[in-house]
Specification:
The chain is an alpha/beta fold. Helix content is 20%, strand content 38%.
Length: 286
């Protein structure tokens, strides 16, 4: 018996996903499977996917398909966080780290998943509370300076031990998944998603110590906004969810294996080399 009886869709808000949706609908019709989507997403496309609310989507789907890029995949992962349902990412534009296939490969990939011919990569998330709101990120939670309001002056306390104070444009708490995102642009290390670790990375640090920290997943880390800091924006996977003022603090904890991402071919290192254009030193080549 096939694994996939119900496919759930999560769509990019702007990119054209009709070809991909038509492919999924044809595949599902041939298998007698159901296709579900969120009302505000499938409602803007002429298709026969059944519109359901987010709770029904995550409860009923045997496979969730994110159509778009890494941003769509992050949203899909947050939607499904904590559930064992696998997530397949389909590129509808630029090459990403999380999206696994292109549209032309979609039908064959669905059949491979239905026949249990795939592997799963577990992805860790990080969680925190910003004010009264619980937030979850699969890339990063960042405290970011607001232009005109001063630097981000932040103390970093891992596992209850006061360790370092940064004055920077931002202080980023990233997962291994997020090591190739904002953290990478700030000079942080590339970390395999198989490593469950928390990275703390300053962006444009105004101090002699500008190194990143790599913490084990079983240690939480507290960030406190220092008196010399300006007001800071709190970004969760790139979206502003609140603001912190001097004296405010947040504690970030790891959520291991919070999402399951389908893999059918490429490795993390192949994707990283292509996306980041990793070539190494020209002096290393003959």
């Amino acid at each position: 018996m096939g694994m996939v009886g119900t496919v759930g869709l999560v769509l990019h808000p702007q990119r054209d996903s009709k070809k991909a949706i038509d492919t999924i609908l044809r595949w599902a019709a041939g298998k007698g499977a159901t296709v579900l989507g969120l009302p505000e997403e499938v409602g803007r496309i002429d298709c026969s996917a059944v519109a359901v609310d987010p709770t029904a989507l995550v409860e009923r789907a045997d496979l969730l398909v994110g159509l778009g890029g890494d941003g769509t995949m992050l949203r899909t992962m947050r939607l499904l966080a904590g559930r064992p349902t696998p997530i397949l990412g389909v590129n509808l534009g630029r090459l990403g780290f999380l999206a696994e296939i292109d549209v032309d490969e979609l039908a064959d990939t669905l059949s491979a998943i239905d026949g249990h011919r795939y592997t799963v990569e577990s992805r860790m998330a990080v969680r925190s509370r910003v004010g009264t709101t619980e937030v979850t990120a699969f890339n990063d939670i960042a405290l970011v300076r607001i232009p005109g309001e001063g630097l981000a002056a932040v103390s970093v306390t891992p596992a209850g031990s006061d360790f370092v104070r940064y004055a920077a444009d931002a202080v980023i708490v990233a997962t291994s998944t997020g090591s190739t995102a904002y953290s990478f642009s700030a000079g942080g290390p590339i970390v395999s998603p198989r490593v469950e670790a928390i990275l703390v990375v300053p962006a444009a640090a105004h101090s002699a110590f500008n190194r990143a920290l790599v913490l084990p997943a079983d240690e939480d880390v507290t960030l406190e906004v220092l008196p010399s800091s300006g007001r800071l924006a709190v970004e969760v996977d790139g979206a502003v969810v609140g603001h912190l003022c001097p004296g405010d603090r947040i504690t970030v904890t790891a959520w291991p294996a919070a999402a399951k991402v389908v893999r059918v071919g490429t490795t993390f290192y192949e994707r990283a080399r292509r996306k980041l254009r990793v070539d190494g030193s020209t002096e290393a080549y003959p």
